[in-house]
Write a structure and sequence with these properties.
single chain; mainly beta; 4-stranded antiparallel sheet; 42% strand; elongated
Amino acid sequence: PQAGQLVTCKAILKNQGDASTGVFNVKWYLDSSQVGLGSHKSLAPGETSNDNVRFDWTPTVGRHGFYFAADCYRQVSESNEENNNFSKSVTVADNRKPDLVVTGIKFYNSSGQEVTDLIAGQKVTCKAILRNQGSVSTGRGFNVKWHLDGTQIGYGSHTALAAGATSNGNVSYDWMIPTAGSHTLKFTADCDNHISESNEDNNLYTI
């Protein structure tokens, strides 16, 4: 379920006995508070309900617990009275926030062609792939950083990024004279935590 988007919760209720139930009542609870009570028609032997087993809910952000009780007033004499209830928990994320995600770093030579093999002494442009995969704009600018082998080599601002947009802004760094050997390059978006996001753990990429 998405925050703010109406959903219908439906309990799966069946009479697995060999006789009809007669009329009975049902209840819904949300986060331990009763939110529904009503009558249910008689269920025939083996019948699965399409009657009063639904509850309309507009989710709010956070973790919630649901509880559905059939024959809540014990109007039906049953062969098993212990299986009339069902509970379930669900976590609702805040989909009304931006979510900056960095999914890769690519390298380009002086001609603008993408390269995968870097050569010592030959300049390359490193470009991070940054996207706002949230449902709303970041609403404001944020800062980005580059690190090479654990040392900060770049820091600057980035303009606001619209929902669903991939950046064409400040996501590049010119590595003027790569040296031979193994290196670690890291790009971090919103490095100063100016943007409140639905996921704060996917803002950096290391290669």
